[in-house]
């Protein structure tokens, strides 16, 4: 099955956390956590995403609930076993192989409770190695083109900016792995 969109990943993660939620409740969680700003999730995309997850059989809906006030009967969504497996796979993929400055990594962090601590550690260690290799690759290109001595400032900056971001990310991942191994996380 293809990867989930960012919206689908967020929705699946939120539904998995709560066991069962309505679209309205999901919208409130998205607003409260600030997903709307950094993951660019609008209200319409929530309902479109829920429909796509339902079509993929990753969630199921139930409209048999208590109705209060006017309006339609609230529909509650719950994750299926296929949805749990897809979420697990997506989170591991997000944590282990996305590039630096990739929102998928942030979404993977937000969904850490969806996987076991050992799986998170393994995925984060893969990401650490991936970023180290990426930094070496960029650094190699930088040096091959003359580095600080030959490249003009704007070209040096194009190389040094991602390298410095990767170095910070490596520090962050090392700290996260340390906390996971130390038992201060799930």
Automatic annotation (TrEMBL):
Question: Which Pfam families is this protein grouped with?
Answer: PadR
Name the InterPro entries on file: Tscrpt_reg_PadR_N, WH-like_DNA-bd_sf, WH_DNA-bd_sf
Q: Which residues form the Transcription regulator PadR N-terminal domain?
A: 11-88
- Signal peptide limits: none
Q: Where are the bilayer-spanning segments?
A: none
Q: What is this protein called?
A: PadR family transcriptional regulator
What species is given as this protein's source? Paenibacillus glacialis
Give the source lineage, highest ranks first.
Bacteria, Bacillati, Bacillota, Bacilli, Bacillales
